Amino acid sequence: MKVIHFKKMINNKAVLNDISFSLKKGEIVGLIGRNGAGKTTLFRTITNFYKKDSGDCLIDNQSIYQSPALKESIFYLDEKNNFLEHHTPATIKQYYQELYSTFDAEKYTSLLKKYDLDISFIIGKNSKGVQALYKLILAFSCQASYYILDEPFDGLDLIIRKKVISLILNEVTINQCGILISSHNLLELEHIIDRAIVLQDGEIKKSFNLHEIRDNVKKIQMVFKKKNVPSIVKDNCQIIQVNGRVIIGIFENLTDELYESILEKDPVLFEEVPLTLEDLFSLQFTSESDYQLFN
Fold first, then answer.
1. Which pLDDT score is estimated for 291?
2. Helices in 11-51 by DSSP H: which ranges?
């Protein structure tokens, strides 16, 4: 699936501006950004809940807007326009068998039994966790090629969250579907996504492979004898946290020469610590005004 030069205007404001990215089968891509960045708008525009102002979405080099049959290749359940809560799995099954010719009734029944969900319960009368689990069962029973999941971990307890993650990873592994997923729970995303796309003010600011970026970007914990931070450090890293005398910074290109030059400043502590997705998020959105830095 390819999104090409998407633009969406709302109230004369560009909520999405020149958005382009791809989603391959068999991979999970995390869409991360602060509230209001445009994540949900992007999802709704891809799936035509909102009309795009320009751009296109292609599957097998065909526009999904010009080839209606291709819309079956994408599954997205809009949480704010959710008609499911008043129905049972039995009635919902009938709806989605009409919407998706690929709907697998046997898989649907099997997954409901696996997670002890009764086919006659009213969706909206169950906990948020049970509803989230059910929605994924419904989604994956449609046998789509691509899934768009908006905050699937939001408000879930540990047990349900593990079940949801297991369902997602199992589907990608066995059926080689592609998943575009947003979540504020960066810790959970970090362990399941292959790539991350950073959305800020309606634009893609960064896109990176987590495994590749860890080979180049280094998170360093530092302490210096004097209170002032050496200019060579401030000029070559993004400081994301200051705790007393301890400074946490991210170096996007810590060369051997730079490393030796910093050691010449005789730091009390200068050691690498594990880099997380949350750190990479902070790298994009943290400025010096967000913490107190030594003068």
1. 46
2. 39-46
Q: Are the beta carbons of 8 and 50 closer than 8 angstroms?
A: yes
Rounded alpha-carbon distances, angstroms, from residue 56 to 10, 48, 110: 18, 11, 37
Report the distance separating Cα 150 and Cα 159, nearest Å.
20
Of 197, 203, 158, nearest in space to 181 by CA: 197
Please, which pLDDT band fits residue 22 given cuts at 50, 70 and 90? very high
Q: Are residues 64 and 181 in the same domain?
A: yes
Q: Which helix (H) or strand (E) holds 179?
A: strand 178-182
pLDDT at 286: 60
Give the tokens for residue 167: 């369902």
Q: Is residue 89 part of a domain?
A: yes
Indicate the pTM of the whole model. Answer: 0.85
Residues spanned by the domain of 236? 217-290
Cα-Cα end-to-end distance for the chain? 49
Question: Are residues 166 and 283 located together in one domain of the fold?
Answer: no
Instruction: List the beta bridge partners of residue 239.
Output: 249
Residue 287, token pair as written in the block: 């400025």
